[in-house]
């Protein structure tokens, strides 16, 4: 499994989700998303490896990724006036995207 490729796919996909939902694209936002993924790299790599080996189920993986929800601060969107409620819903969407993309990537 190529973690760099997975992270690249996740970054571009999350940026696309932001564009679709909030019609926002900025260097600051891209850097923030890169930072979030960089912080999560070791855990994502370990969990994806366990998923690939069959030591974790997709549900287990989803729970683990969901436990990292607080890392998704998305301050750039908050500064642009996006409400906490909308950010909360969007974070859930991002977590679901990470899980689905990683599961497809691993299998």
Q: Summarize this, please?
A:
This protein is mainly alpha-helical and 107 residues long. The protein has one domain (3-106).
Structural topology:
Blueprint (H helix, E strand, L loop, with lengths): L2 H20 L4 H27 L4 H9 L8 H5 L4 H23 L1
Helix pairs in contact: 1-2, 1-5, 2-3, 3-5
Characterize the structure shown:
The protein contains 5 helices and no strands. It has helices at 3-22, 27-53, 58-66, 75-79, 84-106. It is globular and about 40 Å long. Helices cover 79% and strands 0% of the residues. The chain has one domain (3-106). The chain is mainly α and 107 residues long.
What class do helices, strands and sheet pairing give?
Answer: mainly alpha
Mean pLDDT across all residues, rounded?
95
Strand fraction band?
A: under 5%
Shape category: globular
How many distinct domains?
1
Uncertain spans: none
The portion of residues assigned to helices is: over 70%
**Distance linking N and C termini:** 10 Å
H/E element order: HHHHH
What is the overall number of helices?
A: 5
Task: Give the C-alpha Rg.
Answer: 14 Å
Number of strands: 0
Q: Characterize the main sheet.
A: none
